[in-house]
Each structure stands twice: as C-alpha cells, then as structure tokens.
C-alpha cells in the first residue's frame, strides 16, 4: 500500500510555520471531544446520521467556522469553499460508526465500501457538476482517518477513460439497475482493485493515542493535517510568491521612501517635502551629503539634479542590505545555539548607535577573529568573520561617508506599524531610528531552520524568508522603472525544464548517447555506486554553465541553484566529501529548498551531531561549487548586481556550519561571477584573438594565470591575497582591452601611413615635373578613403561613449573559454529580459547595426534573444526566457519570428496570456525555450497555456511556417484543428469585399472649416458639419456603431454635410451602394448588418462592399461574418483581443478567411439572412434566435466541423 508519511503530506513551507500554542491546544481539545462523542454515540447504538453531527461540530469549532458544512445528496458531509451553499465543495467526507468495521478501510485493504462511496461522490461532483475545486476526500470513523488528495483521484480515477465511460452508463440508467450497489460492487471495486497498491493516502489512528504525551512536533503535524491550509489549500501568509506588504511598507518608511503610482506603474520615490522625516535613513544621508559638501567628491555617480537622492539612496540600500543579511545570520546563530541570548546582537543594547553599527560592519564582520583590535575581541567574540565583500567599504562609502556619519535622531513611527507598546496597543510617537529598525526586524521571524515547533507567544510572527526578501530587494532596487518580480512558480518551472534537459544533453554527450530523457538518466545513474563514478557524474553536472544576462535580483540564479541540488539528489549523486550519498529527501517549494531527514522531519542543523553536520557541510559546499562553477549573471544596474550577490550569499548562509576550529565557515568570494555591464553592447567580437594580450616583455601573466587567478579569488579568505589576485585579474583584463584596441589603432596607423607615403611620393613626382597618372590619383583617393574609414572604425571602438558600460563576453568569464582562450559559450541562458525600455538614438543606431533580429522598431527583448542564440550560447544548448507574447503576430516582430523559426528549434512555448503573471504589469507574457540547433525537417514543439503538464501538448511547427510565421495555438489541440479548418478557406475577405473605415469628420489641423481654413478646436467641438435635420442634398444621414445589431440596421439620427472639407470623407462608392456595416467593437460574435438605404457610416464602423468580380450576394457573406464560428475564430486567433472592449482591426477583418460558394449554392444562406432581416425590419424585437442558430449550423457544415468542435464553439 502507498501510505504517505503524515509530515510528508504537508507542504514543507507550511511545516516551517509555527502555530500558536493556544490554537493547538484548542484543536486537540476539540479533536478529543469529537472522538469521545463518536464513541459514546456508537456505544448507544446511535445512527450514522447522528454521528455525522459530531464531525460537523469538530470542523466548525476548529478551522472551518467560515465554511458551509453539511450533507449534499448522498454525501455524508461536505466542507464547502466558503460560507454559502452555492460555492463548490472542497472536501468530501464519508463517515462510519466505529462498530461498522466491514465497510471501513484498513491500511491493508482500502477496497471497502467507504472508499467506493467516496469514489461515487467524487465522480458525481467532478463529472456531473464540473467541480474542479475538490481538494481532499476523507473517510473516518472518529478513531481512524484516511485522507486522500483529490489530485490523486483526478490522476488515477478521473483520467481513466474506461471508468468514466462505465460511470456514465450507470449514471444514465443504461445498466441493468440504477442502484448504487451496482456501482460499488461491479464498477468501483474493480477499478480500485487495479490501483489499490499505488493510491496515496494518509492514515491517522487515534485509538491508542495519549494526546498529553505527544511532542510539540507531533502536535504541530496533527494540527496542520486538519487545517484549512492543508485540506482546502488556503494561504498561510508566508508564500515566497507573495510580497509581505506590511513589512515592505514599514521598511520603506524607515528608509524614507514611499510607493506611489506613476502612469499606471507602482514606483518608489522620496516622500513629498512636507512628509519627510529627517531622521529616516535617506533624509539623514542626504542632509549630510549636502550640508557637509560631500557630493563633489562623489565621482562614481553622474552629476544630475537628483544626484543627492541617487547617492543617498544607494548608500542606504547598501546599509539595509547588510542589516537584513545580519538579521538572517542572527536568526541562524540563535537556531544553532538553542536561542542562547548571547548570539542576539541586532538590538539597541548591543549596538547603541550608528558608530557601533559601523564597528560591527568593519571591525568585526570584516576581520578574522584573531585579527580584530583588542578593544573589540571580547565584545565580538561570538560574531563570526564572514569573508564577504558585503562588509568591505564600498566605493560610495570611500567617496562620501560610512553609516557612522549619520545623526542618531528620532524617527516618527509608521502609522500602521507592527510594533506594540507595553499595553499591547500599536506603538505611536517617535523612536531612535536605529532602535526602531532593530525592533521592527525583531517583530518578524527570519528563521531558516527546520524546527517544527509551536509558538508560545500570544501572537505568531510572520516569516520573512529569502524569497520574500528577494521580492522586496527587486522592488526597491527597481524604484525608477517599477520593476516586476518574476513569481517563484515561473522561475522554478523554467529552471526545472531547462536544466534537466541540459543535464541530459551533457550526459548524452559524455556518458551514453542512448540517454534521451531525465528518467533515462536517473535509471543510468542509479546503476552506479562506486565513489569514482559518483564523482565523475558530479563533475558533469558541475561543468554546466548557466547565465542570466539581465540578472536583476538574482531570482533565476537562486532557482537554478536549488534545481541543480535537487537534480543531484534525484540522480543519487549528492555526496559528501568522502563520496557517500546524503540520507535525505530534498524538494523545492515556493523557491525554497527543503531537506527532509530519514524520520520525515525537516532537516535541522545541530552542530554537535555528526550526521547533521555531514549534511550541512555537504549542502554548503555543493552550493558553493555550483555557485562558483555554474552560475553567472550580468546586469547594467550596479545595485542589481549587489543584490544578486547578496541573494547567493544568503543561500550559502542557510547552510553555514561550524568548522573543527569551532568557527563558522567563511563565505566564498562569489561576487566575481556576477558582473556589472550592458550585456547587449561589446567592443570585441567573440572570435577576436586574445593571443596578443599575452605577448611582449611587459606582459606578466599568461592566459592560464588568468584562469587560475579567477579560481583563487573565489576560494581565498585572506583579504590581502584577495586584493593581490584581483590586481592580477584586472591587469590581464586591461591587457585584453589594450591588445584589442591596439588592433584597430594599428590598422588605422597602417592605412594612414600608406596614404601619407603615397601622397608624399606623388608630391615629389609633381615637384620634378612628372605628370601624375589618373590611376595614381585614383589609388591615392582609395588610400585616403581607407585611412578615413579605419580612423572612424578606430574611434567607433576605442573612444565611442556608447561603450562606457560595454560588457566584454569575450574574456569576462574565463569559465566559458577553452584552454587556448577561444570562446565556447554557456550551456543554458535563462531569464526575464527587460522590455519596453526607452532607448536613445545612439543606442538604437548601435543595435540596428549590430543585431539581425530587428527591423524598424527596436524591442530590447529581441536583442537579448539574439545575444543568447547567436553569441553566448554553446551549440545544441538552450535559451529559456519569459517575454511578452506580442511577437506572436506583431508586424515589427516578423524578422524576429522568421529568424527563430528558420534557424533554431523551439522546444517549448507556453502562452500565459490568461495568467496575471506580474501583479503590477498588464503585459501578456509567454515562456519560450529554444535550442541552438538548426532543424531541417519538420518537428513538434510542446505548447500550452500554463506551466502544468496537463495544459501542454505537441504542436506541428510547420503550421506556423505555413501561416506566414504567425504564432498561434489554442488551449487545446481540438481548437487548433478547428482554427485550421477556417484558415484553410481559399479566399480572404479582402479578395471578395472592398473594406474601408467609415468617415472621420473632424481632427484639428485637417479638413477645412467654413472659412476655408484648417479645422480648429472650436470647429471640432461644435461639430460644424453636423445637423439634426437634412438641410439640403449635401447633407447625408449618418449611421454609427450603436445603430448596428446583428442582421439589423437602424436609422441614424443625425445628418452630416459630406464633402472634401471633412477630415477623411472617403469615396462616395462606399456609401451609395448596398453595403455590410460592421461594428469595430465586437460582442459574442462579430456584429454586422446590411445597409440598403445609402446611409453614411462614421469611424465606429467598417464598410464592406462587393468587388466587381465577386460572386454572389452580400447576404451570403453576412451569414458567415455574423456566425458564432467567426466570433469564436476571431477571439481565439487574434491574440491582441482586449477582454473588456474587444475590437477587430481593419487588417484583421481583411485577412479573415472565407469560403466562396458558387452562386447557386449561396441561395439557401441568402434566403435565411433575408428572412431574419425582414422579421427584424417589421418588428425590432422579433425573435430570430432559432433562424440565426440555423445559419450557424449551415456555417459549421460549410467548414466541416465535427460535433465535438461545434460543442466547443457553442460553449465558449
């Protein structure tokens, strides 16, 4: 049987959440009462109906007081999703008396009537009622509880087509009896028997439980297994996908910032002058910058009116980053030492003011324990040395000042502060800013350990984990742009899919070319157990090179790190220093790594325990190895780079351990893998030769020295050696730059020399009276032009300001260079590149000259795609981005689409247009994975509308190539086939009907007014050419969109003076002929009718008239345009459909496919339309629904739709 460990059934993130003691005590009291009440009722031979009331009382008095709980049909008890009977059922409960042993489940025999009944009730809800919100199913007799996840019922039962077929026959009375016993004994029993061994379940047995003797960990688990978080999937407030807004807003207040809306975007700004608190970190810093005249000394930030703000904010962000990191460290140390208060150092008793905080930064954390000044050795004896550049004086601090320069003033407490005073009320008034910050942080739980305890305080603290901090870092860091944090479920999916494929490819190339999928790889690795084999496999994974070229806060790199750890664990190659595998399970939930030990408990590092230390040591060094060898990032924003480094240090900090010397393991110098620069701009090509950089007597280092220096930099924990190694790295990089510069300088000098020499020679000839030949003059002209061209080329490369932030992929990451210095490339490029970025003219010119994927409009994510595919990726490796989906059909993206479809292999394309991926952004997005390999033959690409496996299917890429490279796929393959049937029509509307916009009468600066001058504001406002009556023959009846309904044309109520004086009068043929008029804003269908009365349509309508050569009638074409099929086609095919006010654009209308029947076959369509129009003309309220449905059926038949396809259209 597939019994699930109770703890493992819980979400690991929820397991870390500590419930309040009072809540757990109440729960246990109610559970015991329920068990006793059921026993008493059973002893009294009460009915099962009576016993159900005890379960209802139990659920109501614990977690479900706000949920409707009752029977439904034959269901014993159901917990609904909210307080109303109209909501869906979330939990189905089957209750039995304890004495009814024959019908109740046992651990070794699930196939009893109780489970058979649950299956019947599940199928009724899922199949008949379409309820896809069921979360759990429970069978209980009070003492025992069997819990089943509805997700498992879905996969095992609902997906079983034979079971569903038999259930429907039984439901519809097509068996020999409709009694439930038939279903239990002949259907349910049979199908449960087939899967009984694999159906997962949780079993709780309280028949011998002494609740008073249960540990906190057991009580914690019991409490959570019955909670609405577990049974109904409610949020518990610590989701790494969710911003903790209370924490975020108060932190902004302490810094001196606020979040405001600007042009639809939430951005962070300095508070308005009247609301500024000069004791906040930012205002305190700006005061000192301006008052003490520091700004002129700051050279690293460009001069601008906002320089004081920019410098002040960057200083503050650096300090806040350090303090938040230290809060995590403090929580870690407290966990390691069982909350020993001597490890609690972030408080106003230990750190009294900014001077002492500065001492903590630079006199303690930045120095090894034995190098600290004697006056600090005792005070900081429990504070570890971290070896992180985070605690080295940064450039701004060197140019301006350290945090010790701030005044120790009092800051006004945030109006919605989390702080409470002694009486338990919200704190008011003012507090010293540093004390306020420390107390604020202390009001939250930063713990990263796996302690599954219970909170004895009166109020639980909200958990602030690394994912939540990452979200906050991203928002504060992107204060100017209103940056958008990629949700955890997206980064996890992208990293999981991409890295698993990449690891498979690596093993396929290096181990066995029969390995095709990750399951193959698992089977392959599990055949080996020798230490040398496991180390070899580790080496293959460690050789992965993963890059995010727009790294932001480092979210993707953190997700990649976690995924690589899980991959190693699943392959069985996550081993310690001796090559022995770890004894634990590892999984990722909400972007956090959870380690579960042999006992099913969340891993907790205990420094005195050998096995615990082995696990912690292994995880630390595995993360270190992967960060140093596998993860690389670049960002144009230096603050992003700092935060990315911080995120990776935090991931290492989680597994920091005590060495044999009883010192906390120092952090490696991982900062060298995350670099600042513009990923899209490089002075040097990837095939430029680096040999000249290592030639000459003045060159001190070889390419091998460069690689070794980078490796040593990551490992050393000696500050002096670190500086020496950094000097070697910088010197080599300077030599690279100089040698490549010298190539262009030398080229110019050579061309210039040739020109000067030839010019001098010809002057001498002329001086001696010789005649200069035309060929010699032409040669001199050629040499001059060459010299000028090489000069411009040299200036373009050597002195062009566009290269100020250039990033040199050619040599910045020696890890992706071969032994001879040639460029190899990355194994995976993953990220969320920027889009919608405003570029200056110089940048646009550079990109147009340097990139091929663009024509016309320069969209920056096109460039990041090309950067990966054409430049920095290794062959047969893949790119995965989340980007806008506008490129599917946007005319400016046609080169982008063509370049991808013609030259690379799309592996995955997930259209997230129905998902609100970015909370603050309205842009629709997609996830695309592309392999850098050319595919000649047609192939299948995996497409979908969500990251779940069920939403994805295989799609023939030729369908895009055969559709002018326009990208389209629907949420299921049946719709694709349906769309193809419409697209296969041999004609377009534009082939048979002449399409035009209606009249646009007025626009300032266009047309003519009564004085013969261009229209002005008053003319437009007064609508000078409109009248309520027909003044003369020049005035024509005007018709608007509101006058058009399907198959019904109403009379317009205004007249317009038509002529060349209007802004856009259009040709008279569009008005004086019979015509189809279509509203631009559509409804469930396209909305159009025929105007036989020569009305003049305005700009809210499209006009369609027959071309001279067109066969048939307008009524025939109207029948197709107004059909449900075409409404469905338009909404599904054109991705720019606005859900609120969807419009059809003129080019979309022209491109609609259409079948043109011979005229005699059009007659029946025309007759139906004429009948509908006639009825509506006689009575505008006439009921024509049945006739319109007949037209729909004729159109379905015309396009060859199946009954299944028709049902999809009808139900959409």
UniProtKB/TrEMBL annotation:
Example GO molecular function: site-specific DNA-methyltransferase (adenine-specific) activity
GO biological process entries: DNA restriction-modification system; methylation
Known EC number: 2.1.1.72
Domain Type II methyltransferase M.TaqI-like: 629-918
Residues covered by the DUF7149 domain: 5-239
TaqI-like C-terminal specificity domain residues: 1038-1154
Domain of life: Bacteria
EC supergroup of this enzyme: transferase
Domain DUF7814: 241-464
Catalyses which reaction(s): a 2'-deoxyadenosine in DNA + S-adenosyl-L-methionine = an N(6)-methyl-2'-deoxyadenosine in DNA + S-adenosyl-L-homocysteine + H(+)
Coiled-coil spans in chain: 770-800
Keyword line: Coiled coil, DNA-binding, Methyltransferase, Restriction system, S-adenosyl-L-methionine, Transferase
Protein name, UniProt field: site-specific DNA-methyltransferase (adenine-specific)
Organism ancestry: Bacteria, Pseudomonadati, Bacteroidota, Flavobacteriia, Flavobacteriales
């Amino acid at each position: 049987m597939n019994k699930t460990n109770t703890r493992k059934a819980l979400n690991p993130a929820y397991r870390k959440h500590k419930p309040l003691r009072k809540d757990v005590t109440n729960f246990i009291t109610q559970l015991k009462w329920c068990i006793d009440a059921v026993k008493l009722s059973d002893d009294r031979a009460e009915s099962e109906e009576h016993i159900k009331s005890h379960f209802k009382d139990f659920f109501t008095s614990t977690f479900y007081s706000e949920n409707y709980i009752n029977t439904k049909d034959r269901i014993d008890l159901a917990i609904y999703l909210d307080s109303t009977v109209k909501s869906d059922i979330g939990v189905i409960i089957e209750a039995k008396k304890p004495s009814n042993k024959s019908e109740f489940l046992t651990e070794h025999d699930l196939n009893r009537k109780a489970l058979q009944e649950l299956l019947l009730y599940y199928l009724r809800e899922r199949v008949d009622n379409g309820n896809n919100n069921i979360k759990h199913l429970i069978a209980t007799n009070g003492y025992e509880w069997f819990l089943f996840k509805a997700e498992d019922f879905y996969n095992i039962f609902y997906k079983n087509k034979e079971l569903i077929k038999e259930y429907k026959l039984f439901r519809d009375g097509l068996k020999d009896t409709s009694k439930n016993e038939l279903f239990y004994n002949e259907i349910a029993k049979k199908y449960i028997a087939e899967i009984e061994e694999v159906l997962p379940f949780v079993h709780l047995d309280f028949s011998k439980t002494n609740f008073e003797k249960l540990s906190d960990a057991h009580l914690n688990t019991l409490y959570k297994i019955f909670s609405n978080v577990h049974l109904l999937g409610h949020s518990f407030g610590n989701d790494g996908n969710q911003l903790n807004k209370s924490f975020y807003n108060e932190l902004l207040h302490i810094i001196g910032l606020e979040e405001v809306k600007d042009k639809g975007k939430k951005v962070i700004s300095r508070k308005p002058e009247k609301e500024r608190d000069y004791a906040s970190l930012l205002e305190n810093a700006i005061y000192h910058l301006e008052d003490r005249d520091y700004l002129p000394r700051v050279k690293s930030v460009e001069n601008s009116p906002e320089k004081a703000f920019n410098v002040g904010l960057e200083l503050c962000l650096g300090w806040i980053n350090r303090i938040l990191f230290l809060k995590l460290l403090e929580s870690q140390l407290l966990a390691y030492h069982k909350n020993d208060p001597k490890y609690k150092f972030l408080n106003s008793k230990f750190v009294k003011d900014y001077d002492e905080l500065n001492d903590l930064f630079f006199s303690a954390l930045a120095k090894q324990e034995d190098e600290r000044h004697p006056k600090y050795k005792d005070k900081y004896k429990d504070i570890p040395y971290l070896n992180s550049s985070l605690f080295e004086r940064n450039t701004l601090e060197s140019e301006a000042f350290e945090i010790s320069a701030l005044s120790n003033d009092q800051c006004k407490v945030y109006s919605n502060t989390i702080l409470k005073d002694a009486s338990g009320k919200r704190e008011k008034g003012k507090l010293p800013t540093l004390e306020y910050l420390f107390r604020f942080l202390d009001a939250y739980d930063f713990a990263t350990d796996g302690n599954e305890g219970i909170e004895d305080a009166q109020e639980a603290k909200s958990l602030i984990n690394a994912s939540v901090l990452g979200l906050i870092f991203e928002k504060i860091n992107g204060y100017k742009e209103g940056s958008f944090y990629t949700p955890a479920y997206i980064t996890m999916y992208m990293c999981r899919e991409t890295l698993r494929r990449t690891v498979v490819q690596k093993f396929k190339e290096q181990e066995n070319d029969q390995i095709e999928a990750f399951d193959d790889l698992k089977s392959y690795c599990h055949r080996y157990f020798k230490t040398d084999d496991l180390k070899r496999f580790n080496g293959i994974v460690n050789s992965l090179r993963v890059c995010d070229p727009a790294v932001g806060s480092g979210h993707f790199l953190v997700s990649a790190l976690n995924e690589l750890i899980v991959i190693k664990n699943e392959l069985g190659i996550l081993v310690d220093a001796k090559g022995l595998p770890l004894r634990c399970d590892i999984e990722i939930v909400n972007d956090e790594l959870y380690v579960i030990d042999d006992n099913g408990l969340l891993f907790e590092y205990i420094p005195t325990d050998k096995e615990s230390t082995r696990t912690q040591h292994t995880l630390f060094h595995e993360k270190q190895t992967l960060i140093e060898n596998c993860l690389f990032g670049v960002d144009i924003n230096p603050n992003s780079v700092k935060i990315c480094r911080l995120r990776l240090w935090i991931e290492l900090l989680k597994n920091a351990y005590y060495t044999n010397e009883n010192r906390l393991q120092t952090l490696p110098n991982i900062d060298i893998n995350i670099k600042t620069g513009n990923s899209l701009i490089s002075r040097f090509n990837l095939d430029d030769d680096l040999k000249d950089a290592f030639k000459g007597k003045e060159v001190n280092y070889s390419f091998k020295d460069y690689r070794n220096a980078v490796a040593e930099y990551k490992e050393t924990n000696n500050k002096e050696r670190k500086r020496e190694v950094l000097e070697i790295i910088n010197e080599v990089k300077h030599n690279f730059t100089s040698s490549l510069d010298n190539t262009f300088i030398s080229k110019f000098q050579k061309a210039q020399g040739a020109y000067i020499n030839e010019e001098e020679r010809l002057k001498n000839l002329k001086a001696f009276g010789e005649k200069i030949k035309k060929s010699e003059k032409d040669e001199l002209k050629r040499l001059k032009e060459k010299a000028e061209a090489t000069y411009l080329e040299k200036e373009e490369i050597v002195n062009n300001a566009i290269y100020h932030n250039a990033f040199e992929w050619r040599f910045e990451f020696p890890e992706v260079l071969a032994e001879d210095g040639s460029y190899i490339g990355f194994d995976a490029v993953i990220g969320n590149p920027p889009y919608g970025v405003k570029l200056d003219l110089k940048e646009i010119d550079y990109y147009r000259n340097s990139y091929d994927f663009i024509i016309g409009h320069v969209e920056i994510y096109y460039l990041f795609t090309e950067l990966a595919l054409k430049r920095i990726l290794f062959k047969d490796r893949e790119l995965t981005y989340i980007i806008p989906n506008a490129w599917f059909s946007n005319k400016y993206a046609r080169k982008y689409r063509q370049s991808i479809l013609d030259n690379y292999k799309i592996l995955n394309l997930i259209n997230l247009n129905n998902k609100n991926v970015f909370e603050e952004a309205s842009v629709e997005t997609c996830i695309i994975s592309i392999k850098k390999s050319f595919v000649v033959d047609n192939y299948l690409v995996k497409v979908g509308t969500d990251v779940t496996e069920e939403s994805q299917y295989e799609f023939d890429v030729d369908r895009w190539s055969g559709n002018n490279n326009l990208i389209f796929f629907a949420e299921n393959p049946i719709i694709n086939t349906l769309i193809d049937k419409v697209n296969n029509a041999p004609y377009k509307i534009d082939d048979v009907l002449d399409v035009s916009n209606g009249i646009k009468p007025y626009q300032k600066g266009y047309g003519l007014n009564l004085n013969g001058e261009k229209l002005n504001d008053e003319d437009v406002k007064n609508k000078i050419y409109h009248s309520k009556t027909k003044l003369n023959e020049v005035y024509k009846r005007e018709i608007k969109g509101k006058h058009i309904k399907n198959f019904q044309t109403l009379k317009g109520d205004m007249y317009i003076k038509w002529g060349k004086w209007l802004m856009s009068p259009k040709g008279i043929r569009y008005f004086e002929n019979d015509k189809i008029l279509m509203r631009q804003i559509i409804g469930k269908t396209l909305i159009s009718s025929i105007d036989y009365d020569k009305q003049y349509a305005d700009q809210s309508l499209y006009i369609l008239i027959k071309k001279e050569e067109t066969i048939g009638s307008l009524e025939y074409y109207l029948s197709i345009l107004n059909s449900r099929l075409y409404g469905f086609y338009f909404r599904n095919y054109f991705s720019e459909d606005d859900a609120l006010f969807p419009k059809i654009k003129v080019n979309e209308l022209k491109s609609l496919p259409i079948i043109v029947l011979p005229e005699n076959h059009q007659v029946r369509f025309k007759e139906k339309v004429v009948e509908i129009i006639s009825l509506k003309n006689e009575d505008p309220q006439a009921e024509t629904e049945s006739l319109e449905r007949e037209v729909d059926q004729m159109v379905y038949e015309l396009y060859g739709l199946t009954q299944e396809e028709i049902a999809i259209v009808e139900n959409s």
